[in-house]
């Protein structure tokens, strides 16, 4: 096996030059569609957001000035059981199996796998990308903005473009803390990991700050989730049925 | 942009020759760790399952004889907020933000992105891979088998190896049905899509069968979910708090 070393070189890119060409966008969206799919149901949709007004709204939702553009191309990956609902609406059968935990996770897989496949293809082609999990800061507004119907959910954003920065890679957790052999990995001391993360943040070429892995986690414990605590209610409103008991 | 055409060539591979070498496994698990991560929390774990007895159990759960091996290497990607719980257990703060919808989806993102990044790197390196969403057929048994602690969940399997088959690509839904511009894609007639899927299944070199996209969806409506209807209950038992109302 000859591993393309770019597979190890992921960095989030937030500064871009210009926009993708239409053929480049088509190639990348084709990669998204070519991705593996749960039971081949293709339970996702993908929206390219070019309208400057919509990009400005998503930039505000995600607290990312760079998301407003105009450089870089913005995509939103959507869990989608709506299309299959339409196809099955005259089947005479209950559509409950398109609304339950299994169906929701199938859509989450399909949307997330497609997003990563597109990001990896972009990175291998010399482009850069940044995921925007922060679209979850306000799913209801995302739903309105993109006219998302029942049985869909805006899961993940991705911005892709020609990189105008070369950030350093963030150090990852020790391998043994994450990768297990035949069983869940044993808790391992993180050793100098906090110090290495602190050194990364202190010396990186853009926005040095005082931060360790532990301090990031601590901040998360007290973070204001804003609309993220509405995710369950919004999934229900969108027609998903995700009880916390066996049906 | 020069797109590596292998990015468009995904096929699920279920027949393999031999096993990965230890350096190959290390390279691929390093790719998984190098993947983008939600808020850099690295909320996933990855278990390489080599024990023949455990592979046999997972083969039974996933109804995939090829999963039993011995060829190909089996990995299970796990949503993991347990590690961060351990790191924060003496913080004196509530750990609710590591158990809610936001935390669960962060883990799902991290596990799924890592799995796809590993699969794509394997495919670009001449290896083949097949996702096993079917580990969800019996999450409770997966949890026991892999000794998964609280605040984890076995999300997705992936088998990777040197391909011993060259299956045809499955035709995808029409581009316009999946990809929207600034708004959710309009419902488009699927045209000859059912016929194309039917032709793929009728003529493929392994296991011809009579199947269209529509017939696959119809079968899903009446499928016996077995333990998949326990997913919500199992997530709750694992310590996740995923209400369907705003908290």
TrEMBL record, chains A, B:
Any Pfam family hit: Nitroreductase
Keyword NADP on entry: yes
Superkingdom of origin organism: Bacteria
Secretion signal span: none
Keyword annotations: Flavoprotein, FMN, NADP, Oxidoreductase
Domain Nitroreductase: 9-162
The keyword Oxidoreductase is annotated on this UniProt entry: yes
Family: Belongs to the flavin oxidoreductase frp family.
Name used for this protein in its record: Nitroreductase family protein
Organism: Lacticaseibacillus mingshuiensis
